[in-house]
Fold:
Amino acid sequence: MTVTIYHNPNCGTSRNVLGLIRNAGIEPAIVEYLKTPPTRAELERLIARMGVPVREVLRRKGTPYDELGLGDEGLEDEALLDAMMAHPILINRPIVETPRGVRLCRPSEAVLDILPAAQKGAFAKEDGEKVVDAQGKRLR
Structure:
């Protein structure tokens, strides 16, 4: 059972998702995508499996999104992919791939919908918000 997280260790949401994966007893393959970005083909495959528009995977905050004019709705997917390949920080995170699907896990508890194993116990996000109870049941 392979679970892969495209992870940024400096991102609280990404750290929370990694914690939820591990709380299910899974040690995922961790791809620090800023150090080792996915290839264009890999990114296209992930987006296709998510079933979302390319634009939905673009990160705005803390990126050159505005400077590159990526808010222009007339830009084709190819141009958006070109920008993400040139500036991996534009790839929103965390993206998680499991046998049950691929998802951009924002909010972090979205990962629970695609994990192939149940939570093993209680889990709270870094900010203290409880996500899973002691019996491993999702709270929200």
In short: The first strand starts at residue 4 and ends at 7. The two ends are 26 Å apart (CA to CA). The helical segments are 12-23, 40-50, 77-86. The beta strands are 4-7, 29-32, 95-98, 101-104, 123-124, 130-132.
